[in-house]
Amino acid sequence: MYNKLKKHGKHGLLIGIMLFVVIVGVFVAFRLFRDADINSEIFVERVELNDDFMLGADISSVLSLEESGVTFHGFDGNEADLFQLFADGGANYVRVRIWNDPWYYDGTTLRGFGGGNNDVPRAIEIGRRATAAGMQLLVNFHYSDFWADPAKQMVPRAWEDMNVDEKAEALYQFTYNTIIEMLEAGIDIGMVQIGNETNNGIAGVTGWPFKVRLFAAGSAAIIDAERDFRISQGENLEEYFPRNIRIAIHKTNPENFWDFTQAGLSLASAGVVYDVFGISYYPFWHGSLENLVELMNLIANTFDVDVAVLETSYAFTREDTDGHTNSWSGYMTTYNYPISVQGQANAIRDVVAAVASVERGIGVFLWEPAWITVGSGDRATNEPIWEEHGSGWASSFAAIYDPYDAGTYWGGSSWDNQAFFDHNGHPLPTLNLFNYLQTGAVSRHGNHIDMILHSQSEAIRNPNLDITNIVDMLPETVTAVFANNDRVPASIIWNMDDITEALDIATSQGGVATIQIRGQALANDYMLDFSHTLTLSPGNLVQNHSFEDQEMDMWRINFHGDAQGYANRGMDNVRTGDFGFRWWRSANQPIHFSIEQDINDLPAGYYGFETFITGGDAGTGWEIYIYVLINEEFFARQDTALPGWQNWNNPAITNIPVQDGDIVTIGVMLNIENTNGAWGTLDDFFFYNMSVE
Predict the structure, then answer these.
(1) Residue 44: beta bridge partners?
(2) Fewer C-beta within 10 Å: the chain N or C terminus?
(3) What's the Cα-to-Cα distance from 199 to each of 98, 202, 217, rounded to whole Å?
């Protein structure tokens, strides 16, 4: 350029400078536009995403919702097509579940099991509409006639009497035929799941030596169907053709690393071909984002596959709008985001950012963000609609296939409080979230404290407590979460009446005392009321007493019977902290286990043992108790029960005589016939010397 400018003199120099300014201006303008914070109803911090990063939504219930009279609206207030609304909101994928045969013929009428009645023809219709809106389809085979999840992998009725080899062949044919039908319908399939949340089985098959045969059959069917279809369209394919359809394996509970590595090793040893390891990650159930990222990096690097979050969501309200209890409304769990529209935006944005931070992270899918209320909101009014159109999570007709879960608890949507629409079908600001991820957005409503992170502490009391001692047991600051997701230390003004009451309880009540102390948190000129949970005990000799540490060697877990692993450390229904010891089994699968710990090197004296238990649906024929052994000899037991949702029982055994050198074993035993599908959690074990009280 220098020679050209020299040749043309000053005019050439001027033209060159102008050209340079224009180029720089265009670049700066592009950057400003790309990084612009759009004025919005919500804050959204921008995330750097690859152009092909999958941003999807599972809207499998859409046909049943529409048949039930539900209408969706755009931001202009006008009725609009749900698929186009998500495409306009930045989604590039739709996920759809497929059940083999979710129907029951009662002699006169075909009755759907509910949950969208998602058989193959309905999945094809959803796929057509997704493709027409410019989005690709993620096909999610459950290989069941109804819901499949970690606790429930029921065999399709047509495959009931088959052995594993016969099931593998049936699964191959079902998968192959469905993919061919979809491709012939013009559907743009981007990815296919072989099973849904297959932690503990697939199509009724358990045990990795048998499960891998079904995964291999599903993988082969997907590969063969794509190849055969493309050949039928005139493509000249080599033996190892470049595949367009990704194959995914799907599991949940990412807090359990070993479960994922066992799966990966089993799939690799069997030579199963797949491209993506998909994970369900719900921020209120499945641990920290740091843990998720660590797991995804481990999977990607160990097994040379891509990773994605195939299910996630967050609540924007605690309200139930259809008369059927919500799956999660903030109860019995700790959580890191406000239950609000802004909290929903921040929670999901952070999941996307976490996946995008992994080198081989390729996408995030929302779970049923349009499954809203049908009818008036009154259960009695809504039930006939759920029954007729399958727009609730299950109809009563599902009892012929799943009598103890769907047949007992059938009803409406348990996800309406986690949707991207209000109960009238009008969009929340989060419908634009996928767009805002690319640009950033600033709320026109300004910033403020949205919540205080759960605040709790434990302390050992002594007989000489005073108000100053109680105050010293409380935190100096708490964490204030602002609307823009900033987390700021906040100073505290404590409620002195509560502190005085805490002192009274601490000096008059024996054993473990749990006290709520109110306060006001102040940060950046904003104030918010909150409550702190203070647990006072005479001391505690139990190791990892609240299961917060991942190391569990100090606990001895004894399963009595063939099934193992249905009781383990987890994050659902905890009392304090982030973890507890929880269990769940589907109906008529016995729950028979104990959990215990030995405590050694105790000075002589009298001791106390207590713990906390929640749960429900034990049905008939159960026995639940805590117990104490001294030198492996039975000393005492205290019977207890499962007190139901959001309640805790606190069984205790006191005056346990211990001599120097005695080994004390504390434990809990559960013997439940499990006629109803029992669930529960143990948390906060305490063993203490009563002489300090």
Answers:
(1) 441
(2) N
(3) 18, 8, 18
In the β-sheet with 652-658, what is the strand arrangement from edge to edge? 567-570, 580-584, 679-689, 605-616, 652-658
For residues 498 and 504, the answer to whether their CB atoms sit within 8 Å is no
Q: 351, 273, 279, 274: which is closest to 308 by C-alpha?
A: 279
DSSP 460-502: E--TT--HHHHHHHS-SEEEEEETTS-EEEEEEEE-HHHHHHH
Quote the CA–CA distance of 461 and 536 in Å, as a whole number.
Answer: 6
List of E strands, 81-217: 93-98, 103-105, 110-112, 136-141, 189-194
- Show the DSSP H helices in 270-363 as ranges: 289-303, 341-357
Q: Are the C-beta atoms of residues 663 and 635 closer than 8 Å to each other?
A: no
- pTM: predicted TM-score of the whole model, two decimal places: 0.89
Q: Do β-strands 93-98 and 103-105 pair in parallel, antiparallel, or remain unpaired?
A: unpaired
- Token readout for 287 is 């641990």
Residue 646 banded pLDDT, cuts 50, 70, 90? confident
Question: Where does residue 294 rank: exposed (0-12), middle (13-18), buried (19+ CB within 10 A)?
Answer: middle
Pairwise CA distance, residues 571 & 554, whole Å: 19
Pure H helices in 192-256: 208-232
pLDDT in tens, 57-86: 999 999 999 999 999 999 999 999 999 999
Task: From the candidates 197, 368, 458, 610, give the one annotated as an active-site residue.
Answer: 197
The verdict on whether 311 is a catalytic residue reads yes
User: Is 48 a residue of the active site?
Assistant: no
Residue type, 124: I
Spatial distance between the Cα atoms of 50 and 53, rounded to a whole number of angstroms: 5
Under 8 Å between Cβ of 594 and 673: no
Q: Which of 226, 255, 311, 610 is catalytic?
A: 311
